Amino acid sequence: MENPRILVPTDLSDLSMVAFESANYLADVLDGTILPLYVYQPEKESGSFPVAPKSTRQIPELEKELEAKVLQYADEDNVEPVVVRKGKPWKIIMEESEDADLVVMTSHGRSGFSRLFLGSVTERVVRFSKAPVLLVEKDSKIKPLSDILLTTDFSDNSLEAFDYARALVKQTYAKIHLVHLVNLSQFDKVSAFEDQIAARQEQLDAWVNEHLEDIRDKVTAEALPVKSSIHEAIVHLTSQKKYNLVVMSTLGHTGLKYLRLGSTAANVLRLVKTAVLSINPKMDVPISKEHGEL
User: How far apart are CA 62 and CA 84, in angstroms?
Assistant: First the structure.
């Protein structure tokens, strides 16, 4: 996350441009740059964000419009030359993200739906991007970054999110609330549950000492009991406290090697109002027609 190249896809709508505010903040604190990207499809094709309505305008004209709009939200010194390309949006975004360290985007643009209905382009980007993806909305701004909710299920996949949370803490005044959630339905007896909570808390503290030792004074770690599903508990936590950001892996213990969103990650992305930084652990499975042409 040092000097990151931040890719920001947009459809030129006001909703999608909100992403540049968060990207500009991250470029400032991490000494990075922003790559604005606008993708338009051939007229015979249709799709969802970030596709604009059919346009007969030439690329130079679209580039000028994109640059003008970006500079309303981001500092000129942070912005790279804009990119306008024709093709399938999610594929173009994936191509451009190969050279990016972070993707920042809103879940929808012109369609205006809530995050509850993630667009097909957005979901594919989150699923397939090797770079972390930050999803923001107009009401989920991260500046100034002060409180981060970091989740773990003690899997190697979940551990991938730790480095990104650490990098953000080191460059800001943010603090981390690390949580491991334990579902009550797993246990028949209260005593067994209490023993497990104590054991998980001990393991969580050990993980902090091992993986976050250099920022230990910025971390609060809790193993918490939940009566509902894990994603509902995370949503509840974000409604209780005004976190700026949720940082999580898209895959946990059940992730294996398939390019799918874990159910918890998918539901969190849809339901929380807080900005979410999702980290997709690198896979050795290439993106194929079977995975991509849904």
Answer: 7
In the 8-state DSSP scheme, what is residue 213? G
Ordered structural domains, the chain, with CATH: 5-138 (3.40.50.620), 147-279 (3.40.50.620)
Rounded to whole angstroms, the Cα distance separating 282 from 266 reads 18
CB atoms within 10 A of CB 92: 21
Q: Provide the token pair at 251.
A: 């895959």
Distance CA 94, CA 124 (A): 9
> Which residues, listed in sequence order, are joined to residue 136 by a DSSP beta bridge?
106
Report pLDDT for 221.
97
Can you give the pLDDT at residue 171?
92
Q: What are phi and psi of 84, to 5 degrees?
A: -120, 125
Q: Give me the percent of the chain exceeding a pLDDT of 70.
A: 79
- Give per-residue pLDDT as tens, 91-105: 899 999 999 999 999
Distances (CA, A) of 169 to 5, 215, 222, 285: 19, 8, 18, 32
- How much is the pTM? 0.85
Q: Are 212 and 178 in contact (CB under 8 A)?
A: yes
**Structure-token match 């949580």, residue found:** 179
Q: Are strands 245-249 and 275-279 parallel, antiparallel or unpaired?
A: parallel
CA distance 257 to 153: 17
CA gap 152, 206 in Å, rounded: 13
Alpha carbons 151 and 153: distance in angstroms, whole number: 7
Rg of the chain over Cα atoms, rounded to whole angstroms, equals 20
* Tokens representing residue 77 in the block: 């010194």
- Which residue bears the tokens 């709009």? 69
Quick: pLDDT tens for 173-207.
Answer: 899 999 999 887 766 666 667 788 899 999 999 99
Structure tokens at 277: 């930084």
Q: Choose the most confident range, by mean pLDDT, from 53-67, 122-136, 207-221, 263-277.
A: 207-221
